[in-house]
Design goal:
The complex is a heterodimer of chains A (about 110) and B (about 110). With about 110 residues, chain A is an all-beta fold. Chain A contains no helices and eleven strands. In chain A, the strands form two sheets. In chain A, strands 2, 4, 5, 6, 9, 10 and 11 form a seven-stranded mixed β-sheet that branches. In chain A, strands 1-3-8-7 form a four-stranded antiparallel β-sheet, with no helix packed on it. The radius of gyration of chain A is 13 Å and the shape is globular. The relative contact order of chain A is 0.33. Chain B has about 110 residues and is mainly β. Helix content of chain B is about 0%, strand content about 55%. In chain B, the strands form two sheets. In chain B, strands 2, 4, 5, 9, 10 and 11 form a six-stranded mixed β-sheet that branches. Chain B has a five-stranded antiparallel β-sheet with strand order 1-3-8-7-6, with no helix packed on it. Classes of the chains: A mainly beta (about 110), B mainly beta (about 110).
Chain lengths: ~110, ~110
């Protein structure tokens, strides 16, 4: 049973370009979460999705950021018109059940904006 | 507003001794707490969790203690091993919210 798969592992974008980060949850997991970790900080919640639904996007910046989890395929975190401050590690996690349970994390995508 | 705080950025412990990592929280609505371990360039790995109805949970070398009145939890690792060197994150959640609120992390170094 493969773990949570994120790609790419490293992504370099110039200011103003778009970044697309992909996450395939563990088999059987229907809940996906995205977190961002800035240097020397803890992980900050961004968005929680179930298939075709955004359940909680309270941690998402109001502009330029969007997320989806389509019926088929991976979850996508999309950042439009990236700025230097978007440089961070973005982690995806998945869980099988609703309610309190541990989430399993992918290895992350390290985004660098130059 | 840092709802989950790990006030020690780093901790150094001799191999074989006990490592104690601390975490404080401010939101009394939290009812589930977790510890994650993270190596450089990897995602966090789940270690152990505890529900607010308990005050202790043990799994092998790892024990988590929860003091609800003090809004404090701690992770004990005994005996500490070199492979335990990593950054440890405390996280909390509450029913209906799903999302985890993380502390800033504590870098644990186990010295031979």
């Amino acid at each position: 049973n493969a773990g949570v798969m994120q790609n790419p592992r490293h992504l370099v974008r110039r200011r103003g370009q778009e970044a697309r980060l992909r996450c395939s949850p563990m088999k059987g997991h229907s809940h996906v979460y995205w977190y961002r970790q800035l240097p020397e900080e803890g992980l900050k919640f961004m968005v929680y999705l179930q298939k075709e639904n955004i359940i909680d996007e309270s941690g998402m910046p109001k502009e330029r950021f969007s997320a989806e989890f389509p019926k088929e395929g991976p979850s996508i975190l999309r950042i439009q018109q990236v700025v230097r401050g978007d440089s961070a590690a973005y982690f995806c996690a998945s869980s099988p059940l609703k309610g309190n349970t541990e989430a399993f994390f992918g290895q992350g995508t390290r985004l660098t904006v130059v | 507003d840092q709802q989950v705080k790990q006030n020690s950025p780093s901790l150094s412990v001799q191999e074989g001794r006990i490592s104690i990592l601390n975490c404080d929280y401010t939101n009394s609505m939290f009812d589930y707490f977790l510890w994650y371990k993270k190596y450089p360039a990897e995602g966090p790995t789940f270690l152990i969790s505890i529900s607010s109805i308990k005050d202790k949970n043990e799994d092998g070398r790892f024990t988590v203690f929860l003091n609800k009145s003090a809004k404090h939890l701690s992770l004990h690792i005994v005996p500490s091993q070199p492979g335990d060197s990593a950054v440890y994150f405390c996280a909390a959640s509450f029913q209906g919210a799903q999302k985890l609120v993380f502390g800033q992390g504590t870098r644990l170094t186990i010295n031979p």
